[in-house]
Specification:
heterotrimer; B: 329 residues; two-stranded antiparallel ribbon; 13 helices; C: Glutathione S-transferase Yfyf (Class Pi), Chain A, domain 2; 7 strands
């Protein structure tokens, strides 16, 4: 092998960079952590179902909220129906937060994990969290 | 012909992924086994190919000089185009690798009414640079699916990439640029008769593959939707060697399988230009030939004609012409 | 010579590639007469101890290859892949982006798609893929892999001898792929089975024996130089010294051998002689190292080394301090990029130092050889010679950068500096055709033969076209160059495409402009033609030298 010094150095740099997530995960030790959103965070559950089916909510909630905002703000329509026929108001703070009242335990769990920064709270007031309420909720994630 | 065969190959790959995941239920194979094999092939393959190149020496110092060499002190040396030492050669390489310097020179020549006309032609350079940098940004953005917590540079990249805040989820500019650039690179290949003539299946196949990867990615992000938390669980699982196979849609498996195909194909293809550029002897050597001797490791003695032999043959005529002789006879 | 082809006819270039796949190699040599070169005569092959000496022509159906020719080629290719990283890399990394396509003068002039540099390389790559790569083995035609057949070999011969190794494509290639490297190695492979062309091998054989391509024997060199000295005396009134094979001189001067005889090279020779006399250079010519050029470069690395060895051998024998080299293009590729590696270290020499200005040529401290343009530029810069550029006022000139000095040395400004000092009428050609983007004369790398005339005229089109541009715009009537092949092949090229423009060397102009101590009043230039600034009848002065007189005598 010729120019071994330069070429091996180059290859090592390449390998080090390209396998970055491996070293990073090993160093951080957090690769096994999983988001664990607590679905029902309100003391008094408002409803027993969500707007769409669960897995649909997981992948499409952002579009749903986006659509709601446009419908309410632009068309002045406030009411809609859930997939199973409940009439609800299209409101993040009043409808969604009825059940998912704890942003940290619900929204932020996945958003932080996925490094997503929704701009909901640029207009909406972030719900205040009761600091002492959090530990109480730990057992009740069902 | 080679266009079609490449297209068929892509369709085949997609079919394999669909059948494998949806019909045969081989999530484990497509989500874990194949990606591991592909990564291993990629890493070993790239290293192997580079070492293979390195096994051959550079017997002669053959830089292509594209500017004034360093000669007399009062003549201005173009140190980037005709570098004379290691540092300026490094700078030349930097321009080449990061900015595609040589391609930037590209011209277009037309023969019109008996005249050759030269015009600047930066389209290929632009297409190339847009493609490569979009690809790089997209590749780095994907680190968030493999590393937890998401590295800060990824956060920064995606916020810059989504700067215009169009749509929801926010449109990444690089997604569009990537698709546009790859399409451009494909279209010019079939548009120009010369390029069509010289293009092989191995030119179309990677383009189609990249296009398919880009399309499935865009579909997932903007249209068909996928549970990205599950994707990240799979990704971090892979790259922390605790593989898991969470429930993810088939579109994701198609995407992953195409990516696996790309990286497995990489070392055996022209895509190795990524590594090759660094080793190109017309670019990575200083133009200091007459200053510093370059040694050829396999140099061997050759049969030469010596002066003594020459004088022996021509002594009489040399003598007659009054030339001095080494050996009088 | 130019009867068979007409410029208008050759200008109808069809750039449309054929329908059939390029993998089909069939070439009809009969139909393509005018585009290839004659095979080497057995004498030259034998004299150079090369294999498969025989009488043959490319137009023969049977090329009389050795029985195991395929084995020889494969073994040769394998060996070269192991020896040249350039080859292995260039076989692997091309992405066929096509940026090189319209950079090649042969493609621009012929429209033949296999003259696109990428395709020229693909001819070899297709074989490499099939037999040296896994993907090619598995996928075959899909990957552009093909079997080595006699037809493929013939195709190699046709196209590797349609490349002048000018390296213009390598300037534009994003990976620096150098077709010259591929062609050089391709030609080496062909030579292994006895496929040489005569225009390369006979000069190489001559050079091996007599020290120069033309086969001039020692007394012939002496005669020629003495004749030149006499002629110089007629023009300048000064009898210059003529040191030949003189031991103990400070400098050994080596010029391409065409300078001794050929026109217009010869006038450059007069220029050198006048200059060396005027500065009192302690130098010598050599009849043994009487060739600067090196046709070995066009044959194989080994032949290049065999022929180049003479320079240092002779410098050592004559006990000179350093070597000065004349105006020649490929000669300087060999000296600059190969000689140091092939035949050094030249410890018996000293770092070149101009005895006139005291300038030490640091950049040549290893190879110990200096280009005449560097040397002269240094003289002019230090005001060591008196020049009267108005003696060149009868010429309007442009400068053709020869491929090798421009793209393998970076010798770009020195010649321009000298030209500007000796000429008042210097006009550059368009920027896409000069300096590192210069176009080849179309006849380099051993292809300047009569039988190859059509392809030469086609390949020279871009150069001639640029000359035509400055001829029409500025009335340029002389094309300057610093290359012996240029001086031999540009005259017929210009006669074909731009009649009326002549070719000259830079040191011919230096010789014209040089004011020599004790010289007589100059009435003519070195060609014996009247100078423009002579006090000739006033009526004539009103007519400026816009349109040059047409001349035909190029030989």
């Amino acid at each position: 092998m010729y120019d071994a010094g330069k070429i091996v150095t180059g290859l090592l740099i390449f390998l080090l960079l390209i396998t970055f997530p491996v070293w990073y995960n090993a160093a951080m030790g957090k690769a096994q952590t999983r988001p664990n959103p607590v679905v029902q965070t309100a003391d008094e559950p408002g409803r027993d179902t969500c707007v769409l089916e669960g897995d649909e909510m997981v992948t499409a909630h952002m579009n749903l909220l986006d659509e709601w905002r446009d419908t309410v703000v632009r068309d002045g329509v406030r009411m809609t129906e859930t997939f199973n026929g409940h009439r609800i108001e299209m409101s993040l703070s009043r409808t969604c937060m009825d059940c998912h009242s704890n942003k940290e335990q619900f929204c932020d769990e996945c958003h932080t994990y996925m490094d997503v920064e929704p701009y909901c709270w640029e207009c909406h007031v972030e719900p205040r969290q009761a600091p002492e309420a959090a530990p109480e909720m730990e057992g009740g994630e069902q | 012909m080679s266009t079609w065969s490449s297209l068929i190959a892509i369709v085949l790959l997609i079919t394999i992924a669909i059948v494998g995941v949806q019909v045969a239920g081989l999530q484990m194979v497509f989500g874990v086994v194949i990606p591991y094999i592909a990564i291993a092939l990629f890493l070993i393959g790239v290293v192997y190919r580079v070492i293979r190149w390195a096994m051959s020496p550079v017997p002669f110092r053959i830089p292509t000089t594209s500017g004034q060499a360093r000669s007399l002190p009062w003549i201005k040396n173009n140190s980037l185009e005709s570098p004379h030492n290691g540092f300026t050669t490094f700078l030349r390489m930097l321009l080449e690798v990061l900015l595609f310097r040589s391609l930037f020179r590209n011209t277009k020549t037309d023969l019109k009414e008996g005249r050759l006309l030269y015009g600047s032609n930066k389209w290929l350079w632009l297409g190339g640079i847009v493609f490569h940098y979009s690809f790089l940004v997209i590749f780095l953005r994907h680190f968030k699916y493999f590393a937890e917590p998401t590295p800060a540079f990824v956060t920064a990249l995606q916020s810059v990439d989504g700067f215009f805040q169009i749509g929801l989820p926010i449109l990444y500019i690089t997604d569009m640029l990537f698709l546009a650039a790859v399409s451009f690179l494909f279209i010019r290949r079939v548009w120009s008769p010369q390029l069509r003539y010289l293009s092989l299946a191995s030119d179309y196949f990677p383009l189609f593959l990249l296009l398919a990867i880009g399309c499935t990615g865009v579909l997932m992000r903007y249209f068909t939707k996928v549970d990205i938390v599950a994707v990240k669980e799979l990704g971090t699982g892979l790259l922390s060697f605790h593989p898991v196979v969470p429930e993810v849609g088939v579109m994701f498996y198609i995407h992953l399988f195409l990516v696996s195909s790309l990286i497995a194909y990489f070392p055996f293809s022209k895509l190795m230009h990524m590594a090759g550029i660094f080793l190109s002897p017309t670019r990575n050597l200083a133009n200091n030939n007459r200053t510093k001797r370059h040694v050829n490791p396999w140099d061997y003695p050759v049969h030469v004609h010596t002066y003594a032999e020459y004088e022996d043959e021509f002594r009489p005529v040399m003598k007659a012409a009054g030339l001095p002789l080494d050996k009088e006879e | 010579m130019a009867v068979k082809y007409k410029p208008d006819q050759l200008l109808q270039v069809d750039y449309k590639p054929p329908k059939k796949s390029w993998l089909d190699p069939k070439i009809d040599f009969g139909e393509k007469k005018g585009n290839w070169n004659y095979g080497a005569v057995p004498d030259a092959v034998t004299h150079l101890e090369l294999p498969n000496a025989r009488k043959w022509q490319p137009s023969d159906e049977d090329w009389q290859l050795p029985e195991n020719w395929k084995e020889i080629i494969f073994e040769g290719l394998r060996q070269r892949l192991d020896r040249f990283r350039s080859l292995r890399l260039f076989m692997d990394v091309c992405v066929r982006c096509g940026a090189c396509a319209d950079k090649c003068h042969y493609f621009l002039g012929s429209g033949d798609p296999k003259n696109m540099p990428v395709m020229r390389a693909e001819l070899l790559r297709s074989v490499y893929r099939r037999d040296f790569t896994l993907a090619g083995k598995l996928m075959g035609k899909m990957m552009g892999a093909r079997e080595l057949t006699v037809d493929v070999l013939k195709e190699w011969f046709y196209y590797f001898f349609q490349c002048t190794e000018c390296r213009r494509c390598s300037v534009f290639c994003p990976y620096g792929i150098d077709t010259a490297e591929i062609t050089m190695i391709g030609r080496e492979l062909l030579a292994l089975v006895g496929l040489n062309i005569d225009w390369i091998l006979t000069p190489a054989s001559n050079c091996f024996r007599t020290g120069n391509h033309l086969g001039i024997q020692p007394h012939g060199v002496v005669d020629s130089l003495e004749f030149a000295a006499d002629e110089l005396e007629d023009i300048t009134g000064i009898k210059v010294d003529l040191p030949i094979n003189r031991k103990g001189a400070e400098v050994l001067f080596i010029a391409p051998s065409a300078d001794y005889f050929a026109s217009p090279h010869y006038y450059t020779l007069l220029g050198y002689m006048a200059l060396f006399h005027e500065i009192g250079l302690d130098y010598t010519w050599s009849t043994f190292a009487s060739e600067g050029g090196n046709f070995g470069l066009f044959h194989s690395h080994e032949m290049m080394k065999r022929l180049n060895a003479k320079m240092y051998m002779e410098a050592e024998r004559l006990k000179v301090k350093w070597i000065l080299g004349g105006e020649c293009g490929h000669m300087w590729r060999v000296i600059h990029q190969y000689m140091g590696t092939m035949n050094s270290p030249a410890d018996f020499l000293e770092v070149p130092k101009s005895p006139v200005t005291g300038t030490v040529f640091e950049h040549a401290k290893s190879t110990k050889m200096v280009h005449i343009c560097e040397f002269t530029a240094d003289l002019i810069k230090n005001d060591k010679i008196k020049l009267d550029p108005s003696r060149n006022d009868h010429w309007k000139v442009t400068f053709h950068d020869s491929c090798n000095p421009a793209r393998a040395m970076g010798l770009i400004e020195e010649p321009r500096y000298v030209i500007n000092a000796v000429s008042n009428h210097f006009h550059e050609m368009p920027e896409n055709t000069i300096k590192e983007q210069t176009f080849c004369c179309g006849s380099g790398a051993g292809l300047g033969t009569d039988e190859n005339f059509e392809m030469r005229m086609r390949g020279g089109l871009p150069r001639a076209n640029a000359v035509k541009f400055v001829n029409e715009r500025h009335g340029v009537d002389h094309l300057l160059c610093i290359c012996a092949i240029d001086k031999a092949t540009l005259p017929p090229l210009l006669e074909f495409w731009v009649p009326g423009v002549e070719v000259a060397g830079i040191h011919e102009m230096v010789g014209n402009a040089l004011i020599m101590k004790g010289e007589k009043e100059r009435e003519t230039d070195l060609r014996g033609e009247p100078l423009a600034n002579l006090p000739i009848p006033e009526t004539d002065e009103a007519a400026p030298d816009e349109k040059p007189v047409e001349e035909a005598d190029h030989v």
